[in-house]
Amino acid sequence: MAKSQSANLDRKKLLADPIMVTTIVLLVVFLTVFILYPLAILLVDSFVSEQGGFTLDTFKRIMGLANFKRAITNTLKVGFLVGIASSLIGLLFAYVEVYVKLKSNFTSGLFKVVSMLPVVSPPFVLSLSMIMLFGKAGIITRFLLKIYDNNVYGFWGIAIVQTLTFFPVCYMMLKGLLKNIDPSLEEAARDMGASRSKVFMTVTLPLILPGLGNAFLVTFIESIADFANPMIIGGSYDTLATTIYLQITGAYDKAGAAAMAVVLLTITLLMFIVQKYYLEAKSTATLSGKASRERMLITDKSVTIPLTVLCSGLALFVIIMYICVPFGAMFKTWGYDFHLTFKWFKQVFTKYKGLKAFKDSFVLSLISAPITALLSMIISYLVVKRKFKAKGFIEAVSMLAMAVPGTVLGIGYIRGFSGGIFHTGFLQGLYGTGAILVIVFVVRSLPTGTRSGISALRQIDKSIEESAYDMGADSFKVFMTVTLPLIKDSFLSGFVTSFVRSITAISAIILLVTPSYLLITVQINEFAEKGSYGIACAFATILILITYTAVLLMNILMKYFGTSRKVKTEEN
Fold first, then answer.
1. Where are the beta strands (DSSP E) in 413-482?
2. Is the model's pTM score more than 0.70?
């Protein structure tokens, strides 16, 4: 009864606030039009015949295509291998960081660099490096090992590159879980005579098993949705993401591409639901709260030396692969002439319209970043602090974009905004413009910012905002003057993360970009496919510099203007 009265009171307060009601309505419209509608159009294309009736003919046709059967098998094989390998390597790194006493700051510094690299780098950098180090003209294969016919393309090329790209994500996830294990549980087992390996297998592993499954599924989803790496290093080894792209750009089969996209979307959605609503919740329930006291770190040299050497070696290898890209841009002819030159950088700006590519990418990403950050914080605020009927819808749909592969979203936008129900009007005019690219950037980055905002807002006492309402402030004023300043760290983080994700994006926008706009990632992909690695590396090097500068600026801003800085000042 009390709950019902409280809910009615919240509803009355909400209806009495026109700004809040308008915000909710606009959000519902935005999420419906730009996330649900493109996906619904794919379903219509796949299941509805030209006469308007329900049909499975399109699915029967694509199921009969040899390239589709091959692609789906290849995708699942790569996904499972990458998921398992990334989770295990991530667990190894996390275990060494949390349980092993590292003698030098160098090793922990390496771990931090490796964990940050995938976030601030374009998704296909390691594919370029892999070709330049281990391809037919690779420095390691051709010049060090004297192997002249090494084929780096295909299954193993994709699997290795994706594992090196995604394992830092697993490392960051598992590090937090291991830190939250109460050391007394493991020490009790040690006191009873169990060996360190037995303690790990019987105590530590069962506690983090849901988290390990969560890391596996996140990586599996990332792997099967990945477009850039299979496109560059896949060769003739097709995956679903690349097959969908080729089906629409090569075979001009929009209905077939839509049906393939639905199959890929179904796989990623099922995995996302299991990961989000089962494993993530189970992991949180298994490990709630922080460890009660500090852990006794492992100092036994027979354990610390091999583990530290193994992790450091792998981390250094990943860093060398990233360093390889700038050198690829400065060598005269990779694999044959290693004299240093800046000709590729010059050609980027003189011959290949590099200035336009960087300007277009930078401007579009810079426009999308504040929109995404603000939208994420508004959604987070509504989800955490408000009660209304559409709350579940807003939260679920805003997070849905995390499970939708970029190529699937791209095809949905092509079908939805170059045709669909919007034959005329503003939305029909979106296709082929910079506005649709900005919208895609916003939609793709929204889940990350929303998750960060929700975590930050759950730590704020409701009474702080209620006191502002009691003094007569409306919802807009409370959000702008009370809530947003308290979560500005999350806002700044969301701003930079959105900018970096947008400027390095390729899978969704490669199908939507028109000759009016030149984007850096599309240029890199185009030159890498042609084998023009000098130009591709020059573009990629400048892009990495832009993203690193953005992250560095964010850290400086958060250090001097962040919430933590303000708290310290007040304490002093």
1. none
2. yes
